[in-house]
């Protein structure tokens, strides 16, 4: 269910990227004639005619399209940290299910909002983002309660690979619905996926339980195995969050920086790849979805393969958690960086560009067995909180990606301008992956040691008692005066 939930979340996130190609009247947009790319010779008249037949009803500039695409992420980042903290206190299941229900219901309203004006569309996408906020921190919190340490690579990858599965389903199906769907084509994208998301949300709320102890159908020996493997409860009864120690922890900062770099590069590709396929490689809307989805299909398949390799490396005893996370994460972030640099220079060869992007983004699947499950290694009891923080800040960086791309290609959709977009994303990948390799760790941190719970609880109790005593003394003094 978490896998399908992650798939639904990314379907809701990516379907606008394909739909906006069909929604916008590209012919009516002003293009600087001096900046038209002539590296590949004159534009094919048939291709131009075909492109004009695909034009939609909305005259939105590249910059405005960037704001529309990023509006979802503004809502998404706002709810990350609050839901991470609330899920720690009240449990993750309810927040995740209800949040995705809000996301799905408002997805059904996108066509109406677009017709009413781009301001309403931005508002609806913002609310969708608010609803999707709990998906990652709450999924991480539930993984911490259900998954033993030596199974985290493949189980974490299995859940988070739902993101790629959702992208693989969303992009080609959205392309087909744009071309052949009901209600005028592109609106059917939001009706179909909104309905699917609503059904999943209701099923999740009725079928899924918070942890093994609350699940009535789990076998006793399996429950005992999971609880013994976790060493210290990951539930809401665990001790107060050690905020100061977390903020001073370099392994936490290594995960944060790696997450920031991943999100910037990933969001650049996910939100802008369909536009690049149309403007530079001249794919039709129908083909656009299939071609744009190919890199994510490779990423999904590779993430499944590399997660098994990561857990084998751990169980073999030849590598520790720190070594495994850094090796696999290097594949996951250096790979797409190189792919972006190469794809930016493939010129007028669509097949080579798509192949390079497919390989580079495919290797990106290593991040799920790299930094993405690293929160669970360094602090299983506070993994949801840590993921809420890193995912929030990473998405703040990620929401800049479509805006930056929009400014760079505004009125100049040429290979030269797109090359800048790819170079920036590749450079961010390189820096952040290197930072992670220097400061990352797979060892459970001292500030999440269950053996220290009694002493820490006593310290907290002593502080509260001292404050209470001080207040009582002050009140007594005031009364005497």
From TrEMBL:
The keyword Cytoplasm is assigned to this record: no
Domain Major facilitator superfamily (MFS) profile: 1-444
Chief localization: membrane
Key words of the record: Ion transport, Membrane, Sodium, Sodium transport, Symport, Transmembrane, Transmembrane helix, Transport
Chain positions covered by the region annotation Disordered: 445-481
Locations listed in the record: Membrane
Cross-referenced InterPro entries: MFS, MFS_dom, MFS_Na/Anion_cotransporter, MFS_trans_sf
CC per GO annotation: membrane
Molecular function (Gene Ontology), one example: symporter activity
Entry membrane topology: Multi-pass membrane protein
A GO biological-process term: monoatomic anion transport
Homology family: Belongs to the major facilitator superfamily. Sodium/anion cotransporter family.
Name by which UniProt lists this protein: Putative inorganic phosphate cotransporter
Organism field: Eumeta variegata
């Amino acid at each position: 269910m978490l896998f399908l939930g992650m798939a639904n979340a990314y379907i809701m996130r990516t379907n606008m990227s394909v739909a906006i190609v069909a929604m916008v009247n590209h012919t009516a947009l002003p293009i600087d004639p001096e900046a038209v790319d002539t590296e590949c010779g004159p534009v094919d008249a048939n291709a131009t005619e075909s492109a004009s037949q695909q034009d939609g009803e909305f005259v939105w500039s590249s910059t405005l399209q960037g704001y529309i695409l990023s509006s979802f992420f503004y809502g998404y980042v706002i709810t990350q940290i609050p839901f991470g903290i609330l899920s720690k206190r009240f449990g993750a299941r309810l927040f995740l299910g209800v949040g995705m229900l809000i996301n799905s219901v408002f997805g059904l309203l996108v066509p109406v909002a677009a017709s009413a004006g781009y301001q309403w569309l931005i508002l609806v996408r913002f609310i969708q983002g608010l609803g999707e906020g709990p998906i990652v921190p709450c999924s991480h919190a539930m993984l911490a309660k259900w998954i033993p340490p030596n199974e985290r690579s493949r189980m974490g990858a299995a859940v988070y690979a739902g993101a790629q599965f959702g992208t693989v389903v969303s992009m080609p199906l959205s392309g087909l619905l744009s071309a052949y769907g009901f209600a005028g084509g592109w609106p059917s994208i939001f009706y179909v996926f909104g309905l699917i998301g609503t059904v999943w949300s209701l099923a999740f709320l009725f079928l899924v339980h918070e942890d093994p102890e609350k699940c009535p159908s789990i076998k006793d020996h399996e429950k005992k195995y999971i609880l013994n493997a976790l060493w210290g409860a990951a539930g809401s009864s665990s001790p107060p969050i050690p905020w100061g120690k977390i903020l001073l922890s370099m392994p936490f900062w290594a995960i944060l920086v790696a997450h920031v770099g991943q999100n910037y590069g990933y969001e650049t590709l996910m939100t802008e790849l369909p536009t690049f396929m149309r403007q530079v490689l001249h794919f039709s809307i129908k083909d656009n979805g299939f071609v744009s989805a190919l890199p994510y299909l490779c990423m999904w398949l590779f993430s499944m393969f590399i997660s098994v390799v990561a857990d084998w490396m751990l169980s073999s005893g030849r590598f520790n958690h720190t070594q495994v996370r850094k090796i696999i994460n290097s594949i996951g972030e250096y790979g797409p960086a190189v792919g972006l640099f190469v794809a930016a220079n493939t010129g007028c060869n669509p097949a080579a560009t798509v192949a390079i992007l497919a390989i580079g983004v495919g290797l990106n699947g290593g991040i799920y067995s790299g930094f993405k499950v690293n929160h669970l290694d360094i602090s299983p009891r506070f993994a949801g909180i840590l993921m809420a923080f890193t995912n929030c800040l990473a998405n703040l960086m990620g929401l800049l990606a479509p805006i930056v791309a929009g400014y760079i290609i505004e009125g100049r959709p040429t290979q030269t301008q797109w090359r800048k977009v790819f170079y920036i994303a590749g450079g961010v990948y390189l820096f952040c992956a290197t930072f992670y390799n220097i400061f990352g760790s797979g060892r459970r941190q001292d500030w999440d040691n269950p053996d220290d719970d009694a002493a820490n609880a006593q310290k907290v109790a002593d502080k509260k008692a001292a404050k209470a005593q001080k207040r009582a003394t002050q009140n007594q003094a005031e009364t005497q005066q």
